[in-house]
């Protein structure tokens, strides 16, 4: 049996007819940028996220850069973010000309550690970026306790948490502004690159729209230097169809995570993930920890199991960020996790039989 890390084909089969009809309509109208489909998706995603405004953009990295810019991040400023994240979180900061200030994560959930955040705040801090990693939300209330007295905006990186909640508040609506990604493998994935910025602030939303459209509030009127980052109509059609199924798909992920927990509970050499108290997890990834991870990964691949690593190298140890001068040992929790984490297959249509094969293969690899 072969079990992929992600099965996009099963999702596509569910939405194929609806997407085909929408694409036929778009191509017949030759309306490929903006228009009704984009507006309808933005409104629907804002409602799903519990915010007033959603602005569709070209991808998740652009979304985060735009969110940081409108939050007031400028060249030379500092932005606090976790060392354990995809490099795009840091890239968005660097593209502005600001400096990523990395902090360690907690050892249980591998989310940004608020105690480390508090230690990293300086007079140059212009934003804090909690990353809602693997499908569960960072401890936003503790981040807010640090940020609010200092007047520091909180910008959520919600790329892996569509539909997640913390204390009944949805991902994408707890900070001043949030960014998300609709890369195909996300819980809500497009048929290519796409992203969005969400906020409850009308001024923030309008500023994002202007920046994302060449700094233009109206055709051929350019008030600021912007960029070209718009959600195209084809992607909006796909996302509208998938958004209707997101809640059900997330519930299927929770059931799959519970099955993994049951199957792995007797396996001593596997550290299972867990959701933090107050979190409703959407299990974008199911990330265990094992010793001899690379050997185990190779054995799983040989058994037909599409396991992965998210992420093998903390940001500060990549060549891209060597200039920060932060060597091994600076963030011990993130570094130790990077050597042990292993992502098991996780997708809404994952069957019990597939999970049994995954776990049996993992147990065999650990012998």
TrEMBL record:
Keyword presence, GTP-binding: no
N6-(pyridoxal phosphate)lysine: modified positions: 186
Classification lineage: Bacteria, Bacillati, Actinomycetota, Actinomycetes, Propionibacteriales
SUPFAM superfamilies: PLP-dependent transferases
Active site: 186 (proton acceptor)
InterPro entries the UniProt entry points to: DegT/StrS_aminotransferase, PyrdxlP-dep_Trfase, PyrdxlP-dep_Trfase_major, PyrdxlP-dep_Trfase_small
Keywords: Pyridoxal phosphate
Family under the similarity heading: Belongs to the DegT/DnrJ/EryC1 family.
Protein name: Erythromycin biosynthesis sensory transduction protein eryC1
Organism: Aeromicrobium yanjiei
GO-annotated molecular function: pyridoxal phosphate binding; transaminase activity
GO BP annotation list: polysaccharide biosynthetic process
